[in-house]
């Protein structure tokens, strides 16, 4: 896998996984009974974005490693 293809694959995996991870663990102000005046009741109490980005990066790295292994093992032909 070339470096450009590797970076593009990682970015696609990272962003796709981020949108899948964002909703986990979010409690709205309405659910937590801690309304801040002037905010939407569906706004999160604590979004913990830093932790989610860290977890997302670790998982994306693992998935990229699997994708890179599959690409090198099954797609790139071996010289005969």
Protein model, in words:
This protein has helices at 3-21, 29-32, 49-75. The protein has 80 residues and is an all-alpha fold. It has one domain (3-75). It is rod-shaped, with a radius of gyration of 19 Å. The model has no long low-confidence stretch (mean pLDDT 89).
List the helices and strands and how they pair.
Elements (H helix, E strand, L loop, with lengths): L2 H19 L7 H4 L16 H27 L5
The count of helical stretches stands at: 3
Order of helices and strands: HHH
Number of domains: 1
Mean pLDDT: 89
- Rg, Å, rounded: 19 Å
- Structural class by SSE content: mainly alpha
Q: How would you describe the shape?
A: rod-shaped
Q: How much helical structure, as a percent, in the residues?
A: 55-70%
Unreliable runs, pLDDT <50, ≥5 residues? none
Distance between the termini: 19 Å
How would you briefly describe this protein structure?
With 80 residues, the chain is an all-alpha fold. The chain is built from 3 helices and no strands.
């Amino acid at each position: 896998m070339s470096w450009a293809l590797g970076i593009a694959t990682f970015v696609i995996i990272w962003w796709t996984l981020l949108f899948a991870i964002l909703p986990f663990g979010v409690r709205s102000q309405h659910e937590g009974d801690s309304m801040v005046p002037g905010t939407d009741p569906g706004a999160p109490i604590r979004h913990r974005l830093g932790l989610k980005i860290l977890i997302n990066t670790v998982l994306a790295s693992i998935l990229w490693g699997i994708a890179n292994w599959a690409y090198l093992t099954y797609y790139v032909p071996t010289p005969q």
